[in-house]
Amino acid sequence: AAGVIQSPRHLIKEKRETATLKCYPIPRHDTVYWYQQGPGQDPQFLISFYEKMQSDKGSIPDRFSAQQFSDYHSELNMSSLELGDSALYFCASSLTGLRSYNEQFFGPGTRLTVL
Amino acid sequence: AQSVSQHNHHVILSEAASLELGCNYSYGGTVNLFWYVQYPGQHLQLLLKYFSGDPLVKGIKGFEAEFIKSKFSFNLRKPSVQWSDTAEYFCAVKTDSWGKLQFGAGTQVVVTP
């Protein structure tokens, strides 16, 4: 069965550079969530999209932005990278996020290292 | 503020031992509850979930969890662990219809042969 795809899997950037992370949800899933998991920490919700519109926003820095495209894939854009942005970034997708019983399926994550 | 607490950060046990991981949440309304597992180097996988109905839910790989509303708890159990259960376990709560998950800090479980 198709799973959530994230690219790249690993990314190394310098401070103050920009990065773009991509997420391809499971086919027919209309909701995408982004989470950030710092070293030894639990995943923290960043932002979500339902039907290409932002549906919820968590602890996402102003330096980050995201969008969901017409094919439902999503991109997380990160600018002015800081050392503290080094983390594993997970994307999850679900079908019809408004229905509370739909579970989220997680991608393998993108490990971002900022030097 | 809503929070999810996992009582144990690290658990070490031998194969065939029983496992119980505690999870408490602070939220007075309707919640959906989840346990996710993260094997070394892998992504989060859903073990089980509770939305409504029978408070004792069974998941994959022999895991089960019990929702006790009066205690705001959703503890994970497995009667007999295997070496392959070595992983990090996250309790998560969903409190709104938009679906974002709030995770606990995780419990690192190490099963020794």
Task: Outline the secondary-structure elements.
The complex is a heterodimer of chains A (115) and B (113).
Chain A: E1 5-7, E2 10-13, E3 19-24, E4 31-37, E5 44-50, E6 53-57, E7 64-68, E8 74-78, E9 87-94, E10 105-106, E11 110-114
Parallel strand pairs in A: 2-11
Antiparallel strand pairs in A: 1-3, 3-8, 4-5, 4-9, 5-6, 7-8, 9-10, 9-11
Chain B: E1 3-6, E2 10-14, E3 19-21, E4 23-26, E5 32-38, E6 44-50, E7 56-58, E8 64-68, E9 73-78, E10 87-94, E11 102-103, E12 107-112
How would you characterize the overall build of this protein?
Chain A is mainly beta and 115 residues long. Chain A has strands at residues 5-7, 10-13, 19-24, 31-37, 44-50, 53-57, 64-68, 74-78, 87-94, 105-106, 110-114. Chain A is built from no helices and eleven strands. In chain A, strands 2, 4, 5, 6, 9, 10 and 11 form a seven-stranded mixed sheet that branches. A four-stranded antiparallel sheet of chain A has the order 1-3-8-7, with no helix packed on it. Chain A starts with a strand and ends with a strand. Chain B is mostly beta strands. Helices cover 0% and strands 53% of the residues of chain B. Chain B is built from no helices and twelve strands. In chain B, the strands form three sheets. In chain B, strands 2, 5, 6, 10, 11 and 12 form a six-stranded mixed sheet that branches. Chain B has a four-stranded antiparallel sheet with strand order 3-9-8-7, with no helix packed on it. The interface between A and B is medium-sized, with 29 and 23 residues.
